[in-house]
Design brief:
homodimer, about 350 residues, alpha+beta, 60s Ribosomal Protein L30, Chain: A, Phosphoribosyl-aminoimidazole Synthetase, Chain A, domain 2, 7-stranded mixed β-sheet, 4-stranded mixed β-sheet, 12 helices, 12 strands, about 30% helix, about 20% strand, EC 2.7.4.16 (chains A, B), kinase (chains A, B)
Chain lengths: ~350, ~350
């Protein structure tokens, strides 16, 4: 057994995926997943999902052990939660209501089946909490030297046009829903305190330092994207929207370039009653909030709050108090440090 | 650079995914992929795909370096072809016409961008050859220690009910479309002759032995599923159908159990004019033909040919000349030998 699993399963975890066989593993996983209400669920070569308005939105995202998570820092259930939550967030960012997920998972042969069961529990907990009624309609199990999860999610636009990144207009209000910077603050603490003397991710150090129970670390492990605010924004007339996966600044830059506008952050605006628009909030990724623009006369729906305004295209994508804000964030290829943890 | 790439890229392949950065890599890949005709293509958090009859079918399948392919035996373009073809086959097996693919890909940082470009070329070649008009509507790029591809495919049922595994009726004709056993024969030759003296997969040995130009090896690398025969079977009234991914016998067993019938193979029936129903044809996987049942009065469409008949549920799932045929095949968890090649 890979020692990095033991913190979560104990040393006597029972069957592994290699000893149990594909059918037994599948049977044990599927019963823990949320079934949703597909027209046809698992068991045939495809599932069949309703698309009431004759279209569906679709997104896919892969999470890989190493660059995307470490067993020393995240439990299998945390990984299941995050894999579901991040894809649901991309569906919401189009203004759509999630209608289904398919999950492909590849695990080393020595992975305890209990790890996959916990992963499935995390998927179920996320879907139940964030998008009740949605479900996992299909999947695939493989073996790999590297634990890998690939989720594809679908959604229904309810007859509305999809909300694109390219629709922001000068004069629109720039607004955000969801927390900013907490996931990055949690990750920073893990990198600082959740490591052994050689700097490798360590479950023991994470527990001993108190990081294990830090609410920011919990957000890093289990982001809470405001899924319902996506379709609510679309219904309210949002002109542009995207999911804040890589950080407010870099994602705002994407929206600005796609819409050929400049986004002007309110010079002294806080993010909410308690949090300033600090560097972590601007450049920290993985919060999976929603950034959207609304016509100026719209009452902001749900958890959206104003953080700025859309202005004519200038030299910079994003400005604050007249000064450019670097639209930098997380690049999985350039930033990965290769730590295995 | 991983030495196993060099056979395909040469020693001076230029940029790697680590040095080029995500955006540059994406740009170079996307232009090589077939665009298809989504309502909204890549560039936002989701794509939007038409579902004309208010439903869509969906399937997902992951291919992992090691258990599913080896660079010593398959080129990056071969892997792209196979990843697309196997998913298109699952869509066809429901009686649906493929309408789109999304592809998540994770590669080691030292992977030459040229490898991903060739992968994209293979995807395009497969889609163009097997399901013209279909396209890649979205994707995701990640880093991983293990080269991993996850494809999700969609399809349109054209107003027909999906063809399930469970619909076979006593008296139906059992028929197959596509070749049987060739992919397994090719793989067997690679395992026998495409290895170095230590038994590790070897590009040099594959070339030196002549296996590299063996038409059966070509089928192992680039299966040619009869995609159009899927919707043709549905239109002709097929009562049950599935994709032959793991072998005729094991997949026939799945259909028999789902339909609660026994499948009786014609005792002396050949597979086609030139091939007997030998062990490879019965138990070799990865051909991705279609197995279907039709009412006895139906003229078999497309490339379908009769191989048996559906009889009352007996002691065995599959019989031939009154004797049970073992419904065994490929189990990715139980059968993987862990060779890295």
């Amino acid at each position: 057994m890979d020692a990095t699993y033991e913190a979560w399963t104990g040393p006597t975890a029972g069957d592994t995926v290699g000893t149990a066989g594909e059918l037994a593993v599948l049977d044990r996983i599927v019963r823990r997943l949320p079934a949703g209400t597909p027209l046809l669920g698992p068991g045939d070569d495809c599932a069949v999902v309703a698309a009431p308005d004759g279209r569906f939105v679709v997104t896919t995202d892969m999470m890989v052990h190493g660059p995307d998570f470490r067993w020393a820092w995240s439990s299998p259930a945390d990984v299941g939660w995050k894999a579901a939550a991040t894809n649901l967030s991309d569906v919401a960012a189009m203004g759509a209501v999630p209608t289904g997920l398919v999950i492909a998972l590849a695990a080393p042969q020595d992975t305890p089946v209990a790890v996959l069961e916990s992963f499935a529990d995390g998927v179920r907990e996320a879907v139940t909490a964030l998008s009740p009624g949605c479900g996992v309609v299909g999947g695939d199990l493989s073996t790999s030297a590297t634990f890998t999860v690939s989720v594809t999610a679908f959604g229904d636009l309810g007859g509305r046009p999809p909300v694109l990144r390219s629709g922001a207009r000068v004069g629109d209000v720039l607004a955000v829903s969801g927390e900013l910077g907490r996931a990055a603050r949690g990750l920073a603490r893990l990198f600082r305190e959740g490591v052994d003397p050689q700097g490798e991710p360590s479950r023991a150090a994470t527990v001993a330092s108190g990081a294990d129970t830090d609410p920011d670390v919990a957000r890093q492990r289990r982001p809470v994207p405001p899924i319902a605010d996506g379709p609510a924004a679309a219904a309210a007339g949002a002109t542009a929207m995207l999911d804040l996966s890589d950080g407010l600044a870099i994602d705002a830059g994407r929206l600005a370039r796609a819409s050929r506008v400049t986004l002007a952050l309110d010079a002294d605006g806080p993010l909410d009653a308690t949090r300033p628009l600090d560097d972590l909030a601007l450049h920290g990724g993985e919060d999976h909030g929603l950034l959207a623009t609304f016509p100026p006369d719209v009452a902001l729906p749900g958890g959206f709050r104003r953080i700025g305004v859309v202005v004519d295209r200038g030299a910079a994508d994003l400005v604050r108090g007249g000064a450019p804000v670097p639209t930098t964030g997380w690049d999985p290829y350039a930033d990965w440090d290769g730590a295995a943890g």
